[in-house]
Structures are given as C-alpha cells and as structure tokens.
Amino acid sequence: MKVALFVTCLVDQFYAEAGVAAVRLLRSLGCTVEFPPGQTCCGQPAYNAGYWNEARQMADHTLEVFEHADYVVLPSGSCTTMVRAFYPELYRDNPRAFARASGLSGKTYELAEFIVKVLGITRLGQGLAGQRVAYHHGCHALRELGIKDEPVALLRNAGAEIVDWPAATECCGFGGLFSVKLPEVSLGMADRKLSTLPEIDVLTSADGGCLLHLSGRVHSRGLPFPVRPLASVLWEAAQKPAVGSGA
Amino acid sequence: MEVKSNDYPRESARVIREEPHVRESVTGATLNFDSRRRAAYAEVDAEGWRHFAEGVKNHVLMNLDHYLEQAAAALERGGIRVHWAEDAEDAQRIVAALVREKGVRRAVKAKTMISEELGINPLLESLGVNVLETDLGEYIIQLLEQPPSHIVGPAIHLNLEQIRRLFHERFGTPLDAAPDTLAAAARKLLRQGFLEADLGVSGANFVVAETGTLVLIENEGNIRLSTSAPRLHVALVGIEKLLPRFSDLSVFLTLTARAATGQRLGTYVSLIQGPRRPDETDGPEEVHVVFVDNGRSSVLADLEAWETLRCVRCAACLNACPVYRQTGGHAYGYVYSGPIGAVLSPGLVGLENTKPLPYASSLCGACFQACPVRIPIPKLLLTWRHRAVEEGLTPRFEKAALKGYALAMTQPWAYRLASKALRLLPEKALDNTVVPVLKAWVEGRAGLKPSPRSFRELWESGEV
C-alpha cells in the first residue's frame, strides 16, 4: 500500500523523531511511504483564528501537494481534522474546489486510525508490556472525527496498561492561539487535566500542539513522567514481536 | 445590563489569579452537573431526542411570525394580556407602566435570565419597588449585589463557607450551619416576601403556541409561588421561546431537565393558562406576557448565526466547558456566559462589544455534544472569529503575522528557510520573555526547543 506522509509542521519542527517512527512503523506494516517535498502546514492556526482567506491559501497548497496520493496519513489528530473536516468547509462556495477537498478528505487518516481501519491491524507487538500509559485524546480527533478506540486498542494490545484517567477526554487547554491569547485559562485547564492523573510511566497523545503544551507544563511543574508522541510509543510497541505472531 | 465582555482576557486572568476558590467551586459543581447530564442522557435515546428537539425549534424559528400570532391569540383567549417589546427600553416601559397603574410596592422574582438582560431589577428599584429574588441562589447573589454566574446555578461560584459567612452576618445562623439550616433561614424570609408581594416577575422556559400555555420548570417551588401568590404576574419571554404543540412538551420538559441538571423532570412544572378564574381561590388577578425581541430578530435574520436561537437556557454547555470551569460566568461580562454566551452575546449586543468572547474557547467541542438542541457552537465560534477578522476587529500585528505565515507556508522554499532559521537560533532562544507571544507561552511551559534536525532534513539525508 502506498502512503503519502503529511508529517505536519509541528512534528517536522519539534517532534522529528515521531515522524521517523511513523515512517518506520508504516514500512514495518508493509506500506511504501512517500514524503511529498512541497508540504508545509495545513493552515489550521489561521482557520481557527478566523483568517479563512489565509487558511484557504494553505489549503490550496496542500491540495496540490497531496491530491494525487492513494492515502494521506498524518501523525496528528487535529491536522487530520483540518484536512478531512474543515477543508471542505472552506470551499463551500466553490463547488470545484469543494469536490477536490472532499476527494482528499476521503483518503486522509490519522496514523493510528489508518493502521486499525485501513490496514486492519490491531496488534503491533508487545513492546509496551508492563507500562502504565495515559492517553490524552485530542479534542478534534475525538469529537470531530470520532477517533477514540483505535489508538487505545493499539496501545493496550501492545501490553500497555491504559490507566483509568477521569479527564482523559477533557481538553488540555492548548487550542492553538488560544494558548497564548488566554495563557492563564489555558494553563489552568492543563493543571486541572494533569491533576486527575494517576501514577503513570508515560503520557502520550497524537497531537503535536497538545504535546508541546502538556510537556511544557509537566516540565514546569517538575512532574515525574515523560510526554511522548503516539507515533514514537507505537513504534516502541512494534519493537518486540508478540509471542507466536509471525510478524 | 451593561456589557463588559471586552474585559474578558484581563478579567478571566484576574479571577484565576486572585480568586482560586471560584475555579474550585465552579469546577466541582459543573463536573457534577455534567456527569449527571451524561447519565440522564444515557437512559434514553438522547441522540433521537436531540434531533427531534432541533427539528421542532428549527420549525418554530422558520415560522416564527405565524407562531407568535398564534401564541398571542391563544394567550389572550385564556385572559392573559400580551405585550410586545422591541428592545430593553420598551420592556422597561411596559413593566414601569404596569407598576404605576397597579400601584405595585413589592415584587418577588422567579429566576429569570431575561430580566437580567432587560435590567428589570434596577428599573423596579428606581420606581421604589422592593425587589426580592426568590430562587435561593439568586437570593444569595442579590444579597451580595452580584449578577448570576451561571444560567441555572446563579451562585455556582460561591462555596459553602462564603454562604455560611454571609448568612451568619445577615441572619445570625451559626458559622458551621448545615445547608438545610441556611435554606430554612432564607425560606422564612422568602415566605413572608411571597405573602406581601403584589407583583411576581418570571421568565418562561416555553410558551406553547397552540394552547397559549406558559411553561416554567424549577426545583424550589419559588416560581410557582411567585407566579400565583401576588395579584399581578408579569412574564418576560424571548420571542424564540415558542413551541408549536402541547405534545412537544413530552420531549422538551424531560430533555431540558436532563440537560440542565440530569433530572428526569424538574421537581415543579407549572403550566399557566390565565389568571384566577371566578370559581378559583388561588392565582393572580392579572397575567401579562411581554414578548421580547431585543436583538433576537436580527440574529434570526443572520444566515450564519440564527441557530443560536434554538437555545433553551439549560446551561449544559457551560457545565461541559473546560474554559468556563476556570472562571465561572462573571468574567464573560454579560448575562449569558460560557459557550452559548460566547456565540449569543455577539449577536445580541454586537461583536464590537464582545470581541474576546468567540476566542474564549479551545474549540474542544464538548459543548456541542452536551447541547440538547444541537447548536453547533464550535462552528458558530469560528464564524464570529472570521467576522472579527473581516470587520478589522483583530489586532494589526496578528493580521500581519497570519498573512506572513500563510505566505511562508505556500512557498516550500520559505518554509525550508524558516525551518533552517529556527535551528540557527541560539540555545534557549525560544525560552525568552521579550517577544509577547513567546512570553505568553514560556511563562508556565518550560523547555520549548526544536528537534536538532527537522524530519525533512532527516528524510532528505536518507536517514529515514
């Protein structure tokens, strides 16, 4: 299966290792991975801030870069949502572009979702055996796209104990420009979310923005656990083949 | 009510910094409401009911002229006097005329948000009327001279200790009084108020157009007393509050109660169809309904914002909102707070007066999932943000930054250059507090640094 990786700007700049992990993971599952060199940012920051003309310019660009791919896979829930749900919104007054955006929308997937739904794989390996993992559901993937069980299943099937976290689906307070427009509110939300965590070995999420925000907060407060991108954790999961599996 | 929403950024930060007990009280109460709402939704086909309620409300709004006429005729057939108020001044004039004409000296108020919107309490006081709020939460904030901080639980921002202290000072109850004791103290005073009042002011949850029925949902019994004990009852009703058929109540009564408090039904549901009849012993001599527009018809005419008018004021979106939870309602600077306030207020009082409100959200979408009438709040927030940009209401530097950003992101060479530049910055360059945006980020979030080499570099060097 041929996959075009849309690495997303935050992963490209701040979590390059997650991009690498995503590529290795997809290859290990039999995919051929391409990296279209023209790719930049999906335009979500502009869209969410109300700058729809600017967002449309970035959407135009991204459409050109990716529309010929068989599948587009992103190691980011909110950027997937931007392409899949909001690009068509941006073109609702332009039927031609709307059709193109809908075409791209139909073949765009978040990494864990792609592995489970398209590749039909729910077991990556046993590399997370014994780890207590907290999974932060990014809001867009969860509520706009309904991605909830896929990442959790992949983690759990790799031996992780997904801890019972009352606020797992609550917003972490990132929200793009929200995090710097209303920093006190944003940090208050992070603190509330983090305060409900039980003891864990790692906190992971599929969203670069949430990860930067949460890890920054965890760092500031000196909390004793790493905050890691889902792609990296899933790649770790695949490192130790499951006993009796052919992989 | 005065609109202070443009202070939201400063005010929200201040509440978080200086009044930590507000966040504690509001978080506790809203989480409780929200989990009860989820449980109450889970008992029924909530999705089906939400779609039904959305459809009924859409139908009413699309045919509002017809239903308003039908409702007015039906109300009048029942002996209720109907008035029309185009704005707050109109409504105040109508209420003032009634007060003078009927010689009103004392008024009791059932909890009503629209009366806050219309400034009815200050009006009554200016006319020399003694005003008593009879919802316990409303009464508490009346004593403190504060506006409500939540649509359903107006005193949600206060904790038990604060209320104990207040009641100790006012009524001499012990400082460690049980909540029941506090309620009993208030009850005694409120009872007397009901008996002495000559005017009862209420809102309405719904008005059924078919039958001319005012519908009021509550838990304390104060609304029933306020609307039946005094000789005069005035109900202030937003024009969007109509339901076409009596049978629609079968869903709306229980859906609203489930959404608001997780109850299957409010403890009291009052259906009012007129003043006291000659053969009846209870009830007011006169009932007046004031249908209030006050900006609603312009919202209705707004093709991108009209859906806000489906709102039934249950506050489920406030309870589900992690942003609201941080500050409670006062920071929003207008009567309607939280997610619904952020999309309704710009429509009612103007975006230029409520600029920060559409940004008072991380767009997490929890509000939409909670809303019993499926108001697409996140989409509406984005719409108002887009309008702020179009109308030039956003800061100039932000506009310039976003334009530059879009330019760089549509030119792969510019993106590469920026990526390189990011890595040439000195160690800890991003950890500075000189650039305002970075300052807002790094104060409270440590250790922002780019990967040593970008993914693109790794890919292009063949290392992936």
Question: What this model shows, in words?
Answer:
The complex is a heterodimer of chains A (247) and B (464). In chain A, the strands form two sheets. Chain A has a four-stranded parallel β-sheet, sandwiched between helices. In chain A, strands 6-5-7-8 form a four-stranded parallel β-sheet, with helices on both faces. Chain A contains 13 helices and eight strands. Chain A has two domains: 2-118, Rossmann fold (3-Layer(aba) Sandwich); 132-238, Rossmann fold (3-Layer(aba) Sandwich). In chain A, helix 11 packs across helix 12. With 247 residues, chain A is α/β, with parallel strands linked by helices. The longest helix of chain A is centred in the N-terminal third of the chain and has 15 residues, at 52-66. The radius of gyration of chain A is 18 Å and the shape is globular. The model of chain A has no long low-confidence stretch (mean pLDDT 96). Chain B is α/β, with parallel strands linked by helices. Among the domains of chain B are: 44-294, Rossmann fold (3-Layer(aba) Sandwich); 411-460, no CATH class. Chain B is built from 22 helices and ten strands. Chain B has helices at 8-18, 20-42, 46-62, 64-77, 88-102, 113-118, 120-126, 136-143, 160-171, 179-196, 222-228, 249-261, 296-300, 316-320, 324-327, 338-349, 366-370, 377-390, 396-409, 412-424, 436-442, 455-460, and strands at 81-85, 106-109, 130-133, 199-202, 206-208, 213-218, 232-238, 242-243, 268-272, 286-292. In chain B, the strands form two sheets. Chain B has a six-stranded parallel β-sheet, with helices on both faces. A four-stranded mixed β-sheet of chain B has the order 8-5-6-9, with helices on both faces. In chain B, a hairpin with a 4-residue loop joins strand 5 (206-208) and strand 6 (213-218). In chain B, helix 2 packs antiparallel against helix 12 (249-261) and helix 16 crosses helix 18. The longest helix of chain B is centred in the N-terminal third of the chain and has 23 residues, at 20-42. Chain B is globular, with a radius of gyration of 25 Å.
